[in-house]
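Lab meeting, item 3. Inverse folding demo.
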């Protein structure tokens, strides 16, 4: 059934779009479900990491208590006090007594301990081993061991856990719990007590944790080295720096990384007891496996929906595009000046009605344009005559060349009258006038602007009746940089008008500086005058932000304050763009600094 009327077509096709939208609910359901599952997995990994850290801390604290039980043993404390010149019998007696009274019961209670040993500051040492090959050490070996432990333990007797062993062939397989202890006769910490245990025994704590076939846990110390890893070859090696930085940055949050070859998710928890980080690692493909069936179903339904939507969209678009294309062709002809109507299709709907209105519009516009052309031709001659009259009027207002010639005449009369002051003032005014009326030059070099300022100072010196110099700190390599003409002299003039209201003094300074920073060429005018209050500075900055030329407004004192500054800011923007301009810094009674920012463009040599 053919649907007549554009409105009915819109209703019918939108009804189909609504049905398709309902079908797409499955996609949103998949997205929401996948997000919830990922959150659940992350929470599960977080709980696993937290429980593993808790059990690990309990395991290490148990061994800490074992060390604490040895600290009160009198034989151990007396052994620490043995002099370096001890008798061999005393050494043998203490070694035997310590084993029988303290070490053997400790090995019985903790069969996983590998060794226990004592080292005193007087280089006396005893070693006890449990189910490992016994080692013997000379005085030099004992000294090296003592130096290592002193460098890696705290002076206040706190417990330290190190990835270290004295047993040959067991490197990177043992953990050493060590602390400094005192002797029997002195409160000073003058000895070391250490026990060693196998780091692989930590894995027994996590047997009840289900991480799937490819998940596992590993431990990293505060220096980024593996303390424990299912891959024994990694124990003792350093974690890649990029992964370690990402691990520290993530904190308690999960993150993904592929440094182990495949994309895996990691969650870490830091032990407050040992400063280790216990990391749970699981492959992302395993975490997302439950979503595969949902994804497949969603893709099938989505593909079917997409094909149906494309077919319906094609039919819908074709029903509208054909008459619109006809309208488009007619409009192109209208743009060319061909005021032609477009043919109408046999059926009638809203688009066809639009085409009818278009033909009527074209007909009326054609008639209107013909009338406008005739009126415009007659008015153009009148406008040209009016513009010519205005131009002539502007020329008659001031003739710069006439003024310049007049100033030259005054110079001649001053020379005849032997008045060097008048001659100097008029020459300066003549240069400034000629410089000001160079309407064909909007950009000028810094050197020319400084020359203009120099002539201004000549006039100013005669006006104020005293010598005054400006400190120009601009380096020679910046003198040929391009800047906007007539922007530096207004800033200098503003200083003499506002910065020194009570007149110039010897301590007054005006400094002009410039340079290039990050592609920006800047020139500053700085003084040590009265400065501006915060309110006045804020008001002036707000005027600068309006990006408009000053309109001659009068301040409280009856002066046109800030007009030159505002116009300098706007003229820079009109030449180089809104991102450039003038920036003002000022503090009351400390002075003002005005900084012009322009692009760093040295003078182009023709």
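The presenter then showed the designed sequence:
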């Amino acid at each position: 059934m053919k649907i007549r009327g554009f409105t009915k077509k819109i209703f019918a096709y939108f009804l189909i779009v609504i049905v398709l939208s309902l079908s797409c609910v499955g996609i949103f359901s998949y997205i929401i479900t996948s997000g919830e599952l990922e959150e659940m997995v992350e929470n599960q990994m977080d709980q696993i990491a937290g429980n593993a850290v808790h059990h690990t801390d309990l395991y290490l604290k148990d061994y800490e208590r074992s060390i604490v039980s040895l600290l009160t043993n009198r034989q151990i404390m007396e052994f620490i006090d043995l002099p370096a010149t001890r008798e061999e019998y005393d050494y043998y007696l203490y070694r035997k007594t310590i084993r029988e009274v303290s070490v053997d019961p400790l090995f019985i209670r903790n069969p996983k301990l590998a060794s226990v040993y004592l080292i005193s500051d007087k280089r006396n040492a005893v070693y006890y081993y449990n189910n490992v090959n016994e080692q013997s050490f000379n005085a030099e070996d004992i000294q090296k061991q003592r130096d290592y432990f002193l460098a890696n333990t705290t002076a206040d007797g706190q417990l330290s856990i190190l990835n270290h062993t004295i047993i040959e062939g067991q490197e990177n397989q043992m953990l050493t719990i060590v602390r400094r202890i005192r002797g029997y006769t002195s409160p000073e910490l003058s000895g070391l007590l250490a026990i060693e245990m196998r780091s692989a025994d930590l894995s027994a704590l996590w047997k009840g944790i289900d991480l799937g076939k490819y998940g596992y846990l590993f431990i990293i110390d505060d220096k980024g080295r593996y303390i424990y890893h299912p891959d024994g070859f990694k124990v003792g090696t350093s974690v890649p720096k990029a992964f370690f930085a990402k691990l520290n940055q993530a904190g308690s949050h999960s993150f993904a990384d592929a440094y182990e070859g495949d994309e895996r998710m990691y969650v870490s928890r830091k032990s407050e007891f040992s400063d280790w980080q216990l990391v749970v690692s699981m492959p992302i493909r395993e975490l997302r496996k439950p979503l595969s069936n949902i994804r497949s179903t969603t893709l099938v339904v989505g593909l079917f929906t997409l094909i149906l939507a494309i077919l319906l969209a094609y039919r819908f678009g074709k029903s509208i595009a054909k008459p619109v294309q006809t309208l488009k062709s007619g409009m192109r002809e209208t743009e060319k000046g061909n005021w032609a109507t477009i043919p109408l299709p046999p059926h009638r709907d809203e688009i066809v009605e639009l085409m009818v209105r278009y033909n009527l519009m074209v007909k009326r516009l054609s008639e209107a344009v013909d009338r406008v052309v005739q009126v415009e031709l007659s008015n153009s001659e009148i406008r040209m005559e009016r513009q010519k009259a205005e131009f002539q009027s502007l020329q008659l207002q001031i003739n710069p060349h006439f003024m310049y010639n007049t100033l030259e005449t005054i110079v001649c009369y001053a020379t005849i009258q032997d008045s060097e002051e008048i001659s100097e003032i008029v020459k300066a005014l003549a240069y400034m006038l000629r410089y000001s009326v160079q309407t064909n030059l909007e950009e000028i070099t810094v050197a020319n602007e400084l020359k203009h300022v120099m002539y201004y100072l000549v006039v100013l010196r005669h006006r104020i009746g005293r010598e005054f110099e400006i400190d120009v700190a601009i380096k020679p390599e910046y003198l040929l940089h391009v800047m906007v003409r007539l922007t530096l002299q207004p800033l200098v003039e503003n200083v003499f008008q506002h910065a020194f209201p009570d007149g110039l003094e010897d301590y007054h300074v005006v400094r002009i500086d410039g340079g290039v920073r990050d592609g920006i060429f800047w020139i500053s005018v700085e003084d040590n005058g009265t400065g501006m209050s915060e309110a006045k500075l804020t008001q002036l900055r707000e005027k600068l932000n309006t990006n408009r030329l000053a309109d001659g407004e009068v301040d409280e004192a009856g002066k046109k304050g800030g007009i030159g500054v505002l116009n300098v800011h706007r003229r820079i923007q009109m030449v180089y763009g809104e991102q450039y301009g003038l920036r003002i810094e000022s503090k009351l009674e400390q002075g003002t600094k005005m900084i012009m920012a322009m692009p760093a463009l040295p003078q182009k040599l023709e």
